[in-house]
Design goal:
The protein is 14% helix and 40% strand. The protein contains one helix and twelve strands; from the N terminus they run ββββββββββββα. Strands 9-1-2-12-11-10 form a six-stranded mixed sheet, with no helix packed on it. A six-stranded mixed sheet has the order 3-7-8-6-5-4, with helices on one face. Strand 4 and strand 5 form a beta hairpin. 25% of the residues are buried.
Amino acid sequence: MVALSIGNLKLFLARYEVRSLELAEDMELASSGDHELGWHRVQGEQIPVYGLGENFALLTQRPETSRIVVVLVASEASIAILCDEVTFLESGELSFQDIPDCMTGCRSLLSGLVIYGDIVGCVTTSEHLTAYLLESTDKSRTRLQS
C-alpha cells in the first residue's frame, strides 16, 4: 500500500496503482482558470496534476507544502495528485475498516477506511480517484459556464 499525505488527509492506495513519483517544482503550471494545477510530462505523455483539499475539494492553487506529484495509473488515463508526503507500507501493518454510515456521501470515492498506528486514513483506488476528479472538474466547468 501507499499512503499519500495531503495536509491532514491520508489516502491509501495499492502500490501497483502508482506509475511514478515526480517533483512538483518540475510541473508545468496551468493557465489561470484551468481546473488542473498543472501538467507533468511522463514518458512523453502530458499528465494533468490536481490538488485536493482535506475535504476532497479541488484546489485552485498549489499549496507550499505539496512537493511531490504522484502519477497514478487508471484504465481511462493517467492523472497526478499533489502530495506533501508519500509512504510505502506493507498491508500487514494496516487494519482495514468498512465505511461508516455517516460517510455515505464519500462512497463513490472511498472503498474503506484504514488504521495505521494512530492514523485513520481513507482507502481509495486510482479508478475511483480519477472518476471523482474528472467529475468534480466537469461540475466546476458547468458552474462557470452558467
